[in-house]
UniProtKB/TrEMBL annotation:
Alphabetical list of InterPro entries matching this protein: AccD/PCCB, AcCoA_carboxyl_beta, ClpP/crotonase-like_dom_sf, COA_CT_C, COA_CT_N
Residues in CoA carboxyltransferase N-terminal domain copies: 1-174
Keyword Transferase attributed: yes
One GO MF term attached to the UniProt entry: transferase activity
Xref: PANTHER family: PROPIONYL-COA CARBOXYLASE BETA CHAIN, PROPIONYL-COA CARBOXYLASE BETA CHAIN, MITOCHONDRIAL
Protein name: Carboxyl transferase
Domain named CoA carboxyltransferase C-terminal: residues: 231-470
């Protein structure tokens, strides 16, 4: 490691990695271009510090942009250093972590700088599905550089000072910073679906360290597993008291009650993240109808419906899990689709992406019905019809085409209230009861909520050696 103790870019690396584990590579690289008096500028490391180190003993490769050197702008040598980080990471089978603080493409290098930015894109695409890619934005990240976090698997953003934008807020017709700061961490984490979490630098580093310790180093590890000290048969006595909030359910069933949520502020009616069962990392996708705070008070409600943003969020997450052999667990509590003009513009395509992601994934897939599971929305949420290996349900679940009362009203349009009530009761007994679904083989087992953890542990243990042949194709089209 160099002795640039006052360098912010290097300080960030040291705070992220295990103490004294960082080994810098390419510290003597400087800019080659001499146009526009660039030869007179000092460009130590060409504005980016690169190397490798450890996170809880796990090898990672890191690059950190240095805003004190030409504002951290990307030039030819700057990009070649980042590209070299990717090459080494793919050879060694280790995650790449990028710490972004950049004013954009270096104007003095023009086409060389543009080509350099393209080199970074290419390496990211080549590494996609091979090694985990993580980044965090601490300063500026504008224009074409926003593609970098967009191509990463997980992206974070410092809440107060970081700015991320394709077009600056004031450059958008009818907008300005005071009206809507589209470059802020709040906007990016809630509206774009790129940012997994906005917080302080320390919160971001803690989250990245936790994430690295739950992910496989590359796509050859067959998922990630560590020793489990939690009771595999631990009863989850109160797991159904807040069943509308899957964060609570997932925390209750996970080893040591640990749930790491991704994109937590985006599309809140769909929850994604990681848990561990018997030490095995599991990707979780869940419908969310309620949110509770740490004191157990309800703070928000959501429709039991699939929305476009939620489907896109879930499908990307499922594809990541499938690429890295991480099994998938779904918690289903859904009754239909979001009915708004805005959502309708892209809902069909988003639903197709969700359905495709679940059906196309070859990893172990388990579905747990925790609430109502009505209509084609329930089919899309990892049903047996599209490839779930096992489907479990809690006893009070209602499943079928739709709510029994609504079904009766459609079938008996001229009936009086008493007749409708009678037919609704009959429909619920015959068609909406989860026992009916189990009798037809669509649900494998009805389990008590308190026993959820032990059944899921056993399910994924049985599915650990799952192998699946699929028809030959270069790749799918969704």
């Amino acid at each position: 490691m160099s002795n640039r103790s006052n360098n912010l870019a290097e300080q960030r690396i040291c705070r992220l990695l295990d103490e004294n584990s960082f080994m810098e590579i390419g510290s003597l690289v400087t800019a080659r271009n001499t146009d526009f008096n660039l030869a007179d500028e000092a460009t130590p490391s060409d504005g980016v510090i690169t190397g490798h180190g450890l996170i809880d003993g796990n090898l990672v490769f890191v690059y950190s942009q240095d805003s004190s050197v030409l504002n951290g702008t990307i030039g030819e040598m700057h990009a070649k250093k980042i590209a070299a980080v990717y090459d080494r990471a793919m050879k060694m089978g280790a995650p790449v972590i990028g710490l972004l603080d950049c004013a954009g493409v270096r104007l003095q290098e023009s086409v060389d700088a543009l080509n350099a930015l393209g080199m970074i894109y290419e390496k990211q695409v080549m590494a996609s599905g091979v090694i985990p890619q993580i980044c965090a934005v601490f300063g500026n990240c504008g224009g074409g550089l926003t593609v970098v976090p967009g191509l990463c698997d997980f992206a974070y953003m410092e809440a107060d000072k970081a700015k991320m934008f394709v077009n600056a807020p004031n450059a958008i017709e009818g907008n300005y910073v005071g009206k809507c700061d589209t470059s802020s961490a709040d906007f990016q984490s809630t509206e774009t679906g790129v940012i997994d979490m906005a917080g302080s630098e320390e919160e971001i580093f803690a989250q990245i360290r936790e994430l690295v310790c739950m992910l496989p180093a590359d796509n050859t590890e067959n998922g990630y597993m560590e020793d489990c000290e939690d009771d595999l048969n631990r009863a989850c006595e109160n797991v159904d008291t807040m069943k509308g909030d899957p964060r609570f359910v997932l925390s209750e069933i996970s080893d040591n009650h640990n749930f790491l949520e991704t994109k937590k502020d985006y599309a809140k009616s769909m929850v994604t993240g990681f848990i561990q069962l018997n030490g095995l990392t599991i990707g979780a996708v869940a419908n969310c109808t309620e949110e509770y705070d740490e004191e157990g008070k309800k703070v928000a409600e959501h429709d039991a419906a699939l929305c476009a943003k939620g489907c896109e969020k879930a499908s990307e997450f499922i594809q990541f899990c499938d690429a890295f052999d991480i099994p998938v667990l779904s918690l289903t509590n859904v009754a239909g689709f979001t009915a708004t003009k805005c959502s309708e513009r892209r809902l069909a395509k988003a639903l197709a992406k969700l359905t495709y992601a679940f059906a196309n994934a070859t990893v172990p897939k388990v579905s747990l019905l925790t609430g109502n599971a009505y209509g084609s929305a329930a089919v899309m949420m990892n049903s047996k019809a599209i490839g779930a290996d096992l489907v479990y349900a809690w006893p009070d679940v209602k499943t079928g085409m739709m709510d029994a009362r609504l079904a009766a009203e459609i079938m008996y349009t001229d009936a009086d209230a008493d007749k409708l009530a009678e037919k609704a009761k009959e429909y619920e007994a015959l068609q909406s009861n989860v026992v009916t679904a189990a009798k037809r083989g669509y649900v494998d087992l009805i389990i008590e909520p308190a026993d959820t953890r032990k059944y899921l542990v056993a399910a994924f243990e049985m599915l650990f050696t799952k192998r699946m042949d699929t028809p030959y194709k270069k790749h799918g089209t969704k």
